[in-house]
Write a structure and sequence with these properties.
The structure holds 2 protein chains of 2 kinds. Chain A is mainly α. Chain A has 10 helices and no strands. Chain B is α/β, with parallel strands linked by helices. Classes of the chains: A mainly alpha, B alpha/beta.
């Protein structure tokens, strides 16, 4: 019993070993002169700066404003892209009509469009939310379309043979059948939401985590810069973990791990 | 051919038309496909002048070479495919579309993976518009009938192939169809499970008095289960011969499969199918090409 527990803890520790080694190098390298401590301060100083930022309330403000932008853009994307994807996936004619346009838009990087969005929406909140919406809706839209199109035909046949009306078929077969794919799209988009957000905040903002990184660098408050980067990494991990957990809860029926914890 | 004297014996014995649950009259199905050289469309005749009458409460199997259209014919009865000519009548009404008076069981189980076993069985009952309590009672009853009491709250991926097919049968029976259409339902399960399922199916059939149309490529399976076996030929697909299976019921006591009578009937059907192969040798390649185009 006890030896099992020790083995279990040992395995967990082994999982985290690479991180420990990395942090150790980070801590030691600047101290023994392998790295310039001004540009790469030791990890402990970053942690200190991290807690200073938390205590001063600055971190919370920036995290909240960033989260608000991300969630807003993400929410709008969800509301528009999922129904649109369902329609495109279900009606062949709509797909044939829209596909060339979608393919072209999809290849247009969200960040390339940022100046356009700033021109149109100004430098305020709207342009940032809009750019996040633009970036995150693609994975959701495309995965919804493919989810609808790849619902097992035998399930559709089975439901139809039982006299299911088109609406029943859609609600009880197509929608749940496409759900794992839609959820994959949501997870992918959550990652890109954070990415786009940070970039957008670096270019034109006066708050948020991206702004904090940028401003710290300009003011040469290097530990703060690393602290902000660290908080983004933690944020990404937490969001991914929560989504995986949510996916497992909703899709208990799924045997293949469409929603595994890894990217 | 000496065998043709057997044809329709059963039907001639009892002339009463009202005993037939399903009548397929001169059924034809033709698809338009692109020709190989030019883009001119040509007709691909899948079924031609197919006639079949199925009696109420009968267990009828359809065997035939692959590509003869036996599964297609089953889909036609299910109302999933519209025919080009002729008509199919069920209980004196012409079939137009799927309905709950026919239940279908497919080779691939077709259970909804996101529904629990009980919710799967309830699917047809939901379409029928039954209340929650009624649905629960009925689904539980049929899960018990197929011998799987206790798996109600499981999900399909937790069940073996044989169990999934039992649930598919329970689902098709739950909404109480007159006719059960089975499309190679046991092709994907192992030999031993299949034999168990044969006995189970016969037990359920006797208990529920359903009319069963059973499509299979296994002659042995057809002979073991059926009252009559319809043998199809292909190019175009049609009923070639109908064989009465006069083996005594119940068929699960003793080793019926190795009895001389069983072997004789099996051989008879085998020869019918074999004739067909030889006849069609020439046209075979041609149709396969066309089939690829589709």
């Amino acid at each position: 019993m006890i030896s099992n527990l020790i083995k279990k803890i040992g395995r967990k520790l082994y999982n985290l070993l690479a991180i420990f080694v990395f942090l150790l190098i980070w801590e030691v390298a600047p101290r023994i002169g392998l790295a310039d401590p001004i540009f790469v301060p030791p990890f402990s100083k970053v942690v200190y700066a991290f807690f200073q930022l938390i205590l001063s309330g600055e971190m919370l403000t920036d995290v909240l404003i960033s989260l608000q932008r991300a969630l807003l853009g993400f929410g709008i994307a969800l509301i528009i892209a999922v129904p649109l994807g369902l329609i495109i996936g279900w009606f062949d004619r709509v797909e044939k009509f829209l596909d060339p346009l979608l393919q072209t838009f999809r290849q247009t990087s969200a960040l390339a469009l940022l100046p356009v969005f700033i021109l149109i929406f100004g430098i305020g909140e709207v342009s940032k939310v809009a750019i996040i919406f633009w970036g995150v809706q693609w994975p959701i839209l495309l995965n919804t379309i493919s989810g609808v199109k790849t619902v097992d035909p035998i399930l559709i046949k089975s439901a139809r043979s039982m006299g299911a009306s088109p609406i029943t078929l859609f609600v009880k077969v197509i929608l749940p059948g496409a759900f794992p794919s839609i959820f994959t799209g949501i997870r992918l988009s959550a990652t890109s939401a954070i990415l786009i957000l940070i970039a957008a905040e670096m270019i034109g903002a006066n708050s948020g985590l991206g702004f904090l990184i940028y401003e710290s660098q300009v003011k040469i408050e290097i530990p703060n810069m690393y602290a902000a980067i660290l908080s983004i990494a933690i944020l990404g991990l937490v969001v991914n973990y929560l989504l995986v957990l949510l996916g497992k809860r909703i899709m208990r029926w799924n045997d293949t791990s469409v929603i595994s914890g890894k990217e | 051919m000496s065998l043709s004297s057997r044809k329709n014996i059963n039907l001639n014995n009892k002339g009463n038309e009202f005993e037939y649950r399903i009548k397929a009259e001169n059924v034809g199905l033709t698809y338009k496909v692109k020709g190989e050289n030019n883009n001119k469309k040509i007709d691909l005749v899948v079924l031609n002048d197919l006639n079949l009458k199925v009696k109420s409460g009968e267990f009828l199997s359809i065997v035939g070479p692959s590509g003869c259209g036996k599964s297609t014919f089953l889909d036609i009865i299910a109302g999933l495919i519209n025919i080009s000519s002729g008509r199919v009548i069920i209980d004196n009404k012409e079939i137009n579309g799927p309905a709950l008076d026919r239940g279908i069981v497919m080779q691939g189980y077709a259970l909804f993976p996101w529904r629990t076993i009980q919710k799967n069985v309830e699917f047809g009952l939901e379409i029928k518009g039954l209340k929650k309590k009624q649905r629960e009672d009925i689904s539980k009853k049929f899960i018990e009938l197929v011998g799987l009491k206790g798996v109600e709250s499981r999900y399909p991926h937790e069940l073996s192939g044989g169990m999934k097919q039992r649930i598919a049968i329970a689902r098709a029976l739950a909404y109480d169809p007159e006719v059960l259409l089975m499309d190679e339902p046991f092709a994907a399960v192992d030999e031993q499970t299949r034999e168990t399922l044969h006995v189970e199916l016969l037990r359920i059939w006797e208990k529920t008095n359903k009319t069963i149309i059973f499509v299979t490529h296994s002659i042995e399976e057809a002979v073991f289960l059926s009252d009559r076996v319809a043998v199809m030929s292909k190019n175009p697909g049609t009923i070639k011969e109908i064989i009465n299976i006069d083996l005594p019921r119940p068929r699960d006591n003793g080793d019926l499969r190795s009895s001389p009578e069983f072997s004789r009937i099996r051989h008879e059907i085998w020869e019918l199918l074999h004739d067909d192969k030889v006849e069609n040798q020439e046209s075979k390649t041609r149709v396969e090409e066309v089939a690829k185009v589709i």
